[in-house]
């Protein structure tokens, strides 16, 4: 009887859902950001803040708006790359 397969309707046969219940839950690891891109994001945030202050002080000049938008775009790009490439 050792080599005989179990019939399909046998209750003692393990089901895939029983295997999943026996596994311990895995905790997801939080990946640390890439230090290079994190530094670039912080450094590019400085001119962004400066141009934003200039934009507010100047009363909404379009030149400072373009500089603020350009710097902010690079800050966001570096920040997103810091989380992605690790």
Number of strands: 0
Q: Enumerate the spans where pLDDT stays under 50 for 5 or more consecutive residues.
A: none
C-alpha end-to-end distance? 54 Å
Shape: rod-shaped
> What is the average of the pLDDT values?
82
Question: Secondary-structure element sequence?
Answer: HHH
As a percent range, the share of strand residues is: under 5%
Rg, alpha carbons: 28 Å
* Main pleated sheet: none
General description of the model:
This protein is mostly helical and 86 residues long. It has a domain at 32-84. It is built from three helices and no strands. The protein has helices at residues 16-22, 35-57, 62-84. It is rod-shaped. The model has no long low-confidence stretch (mean pLDDT 82).
Task: Give me the secondary-structure topology.
Blueprint: H1 16-22, H2 35-57, H3 62-84
Helix pairs in contact: 2-3
How would you concisely characterize the structure shown here?
It contains 3 helices and no strands.
Keywords:
single chain; 86 residues; mainly alpha; 62% helix
């Amino acid at each position: 009887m050792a080599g005989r397969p179990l019939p399909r309707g046998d209750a003692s046969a393990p089901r895939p859902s029983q295997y999943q219940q026996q596994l311990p839950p895995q905790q997801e690891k939080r990946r640390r950001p890439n230090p290079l891109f994190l530094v670039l994001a912080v450094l590019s945030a400085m001119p962004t803040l400066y141009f934003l202050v200039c934009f507010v002080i100047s009363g909404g000049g379009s030149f400072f708006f373009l500089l603020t938008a350009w710097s902010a775009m690079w800050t966001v790009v570096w920040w997103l790359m810091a989380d992605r490439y690790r």
